[in-house]
Amino acid sequence: MDAFRSSLVEEGGPGWEQGFASLLGAQGEGVAYVNRALTFLFVNPAAEALFGVPSGELIGRNLRDFVLPEHLAALSRQERLRALGETGGFDLEIRRPDGARRHILVSASTHFSGNGDSQGTFGIFRDITEWKRVEADLGRLSIAIEQASDSIVIVDTKGVILYANLATCELTGVEVKALVGCHVRCLRSPRHDQLFYLDLWNHVLSGEVWRGRIQNQRVDGAFCEVLSTFSPVRGSDGSILYVVIDSRDVTREAELESQLRHSQRMEAIGVLAGGIAHDFNNILTPILGYAEMALTRASADDKLNAYLQEILSAGRRAAGLVDQILTFSRQGEQVKKPVLLGPIVKETLKLIRAAIPKSIAIHSKLKAPDRPVKADPGQLHQVVMNLCTNAFQAMKERGGNLEVCLDSALFTEPVTFQGVTLAPGPYLRLQVKDSGCGMDGETLKKAFLPFFTTRKTGEGTGLGLSIVHGIVLALGGGIGVESEVGVGSSFSIYLPEAEETAVEASANTGRPARGRGRILVVDDEPSVGNLMREILVSLGYHASVLDSSPLALETLSLARESFDLIISDMSMPEMTGMELLTRLRVGGIVTPIILMTGFSQDMEELAGMEQGPVALLHKPVDIKSLANLLLGILPQGE
Questions:
Q1: How far apart are CA 177 and CA 278, in angstroms?
Q2: Do 80 and 155 reside in the same domain of the chain?
Q3: What is the pTM of this model?
Q4: What's the confidence (pLDDT) of residue 578?
């Protein structure tokens, strides 16, 4: 210290040391002088405050005592440079006596004696801890934005792109370096008009955040749906400096939302179908029943015979329409059994060939093994017929080729079609391809919606593919679709193979079988009740009809042995057929009961009930089926 003071006196003369010390003490930054061993010989108050040492206690301390161990090597390197006459600044991190860590920027200059020997070092110490924190925050923010999964684009108020992260390249297909400097209009999609973007930009420049979905087009021409947020960033004076655009690809989410809406619509249609099915079938039951009974009395060459046949045909079509609605809403009961799909496809193609013009060629490639699927044969027929009809409609104007293929497929891992995941295993694959008009992406999304059709009025109901959808899903299968406008469409149906052996359906031919017994019919619809009595009497049974469940319960409670069988409607006011059955069983009445419904019930669930119904009878009632059902319950007549 004495040498330092002597130097000051020699260089500045009397009073110069005091003035110099006073000048350094007034500095806001820390100033210090250290000898060659880095011991503090002079410090100003700001330096003492920076190092966290009380006034007067920093003199005689060594700088190395404060420097963090990992910075000591850098400090030694700087010492060597200073000894060689180097000047400049460097960073250090110190730990104060109270444990606080501070980053300091050191500007150092070596003090040489008159003969050129290094005597010590002058240092100016600046606290840059806050700068370092901000720098670290900015670094983390930069890394986070650069590696974010969302596309981040920063544009100025004129729309010029200032920055784009790597996710922007993945979203748009354009390299980042090609985007920077371009106008943001280069990212516009043809699916939105100029007014859309003008309103968006004006909204943002007014200081408001804009958030919404945009149909973006990648550089390869593919479209994707993105959820974008345009956020204006203001300066200290409140003016907008630039706009940050955060975009995320939500194409998959949009597809799932569409599938959910589709499912909800299907469920709503199912509820509606369930509501009308019972009443509609109650109307059809007497129409078909009386027509069928009248037909047995009309002569073969009588015009009345032809009239009745037309009534039966129209009524059965109406009943089939209700079944179709219940099928695609997945509320119809399916009588599943192991059946071979190949013969059903062959039979359907014969019918199709007779119904479509010669301008459409049919090619079949049926290579399926003799493995059955567990399904209702009638519904499989519907699937093939509806797919072929849909293909025919697509080629109706220009003709073309209809190709039907049947083979096997083995999935070794789960596969998803139309939002439905199929488990690994063996499947039968039915493909129906056409060379018709094809469908664009938007039409393809709606293809399976009920009542959606691209046909002219009167050419289709929009139920064909919906019915296929409902049947296939109910059978545990899936549907794959490929289509291109002007090229054609291909529908692939995957149905799981059944382990059981296929059985042939027995034909229901000949006159209805007669029987004997006493049967009570309970139905709140007089027309249905009267028809059932006529049918049962014609089959040789004694039949009585009641139009009230409570009255039936009272009658049976008083006369337990009066009837051999009860046929009750499922849906009735005051007391349903199921409730009537339960009350009778609680009361000890074990008379067999057939539940009759114009809607549908899960027969497996009912069959699992203790002392449940012996059978379920669907409206409209088929006389031959009813006769055969009764024979299995009551004794046969002569």
A1: 67
A2: no
A3: 0.43
A4: 87
- pLDDT value for 471: 83
- Choosing from 442, 461, 496, the residue where a domain stops is 496
Q: Identify the helix (H) or strand (E) that includes residue 363.
A: strand 360-366
Strands 30-35 and 118-127: antiparallel
Q: Per residue in 581-611, pLDDT tens?
A: 888 888 888 888 988 887 654 444 555 555 6
Instruction: Say which residues have a Cβ less than 8 Å from residue 49's Cβ, sequence separation at least 6.
Output: 30
Instruction: Look at residue 425 and give its three-state secondary structure.
Output: strand
Q: Which amino acid is located at 114 in the chain?
A: G
Peptide bond into 526 cis (omega under 30): no
Phi-psi group of 207: left, alpha or beta (phi > 0 → left; psi -120 to 50 → alpha; rest → beta): left
Q: Residue 179's pLDDT band (boundaries 50, 70, 90)?
A: confident
Digit-coded pLDDT (tens) for 381-437: 888 888 888 888 888 778 888 899 999 888 888 888 877 888 899 999 999 998 888
Q: Could you give the CA distance from residue 59 to residue 111 in angstroms, rounded to a whole number?
A: 18
- Hey, how many other C-beta atoms are within 10 angstroms of the C-beta on 467? 23
Backbone angles phi, psi at 403, to 5 degrees: -115, 125
CATH of the domain at 537: 3.40.50.2300
Question: Total structural domains in the chain?
Answer: 4
Nearest to 270 by CA among 459, 442, 474: 474
Amino acid at 150: D
**In the beta sheet, which residues pair with residue 484?**
488
| 266 vs 279: CA distance, rounded Å | 21
Burial level of 561, CB count in 10 A (0-12/13-18/19+)? exposed
Q: How far apart are CA 542 and CA 518, in angstroms?
A: 5
**Edge-to-edge order in the sheet of strand 210-217:** 161-164, 151-156, 240-249, 223-234, 210-217
Beta strands 30-35 and 425-434 are: unpaired
Is residue 357 a contact partner of residue 317, using CB atoms and an 8 Å limit?
Answer: no
How many other C-beta atoms lie within 10 A of the C-beta of residue 495? 24
User: Which tokens in the block code for residue 493?
Assistant: 């149906």
pLDDT of 166 above 60 = yes
Determine the 3-state secondary structure of 92 from DSSP: strand
Can you give the residue range of the structural domain that contains 119? 2-133
pLDDT higher than threshold 70 for residue 263: no
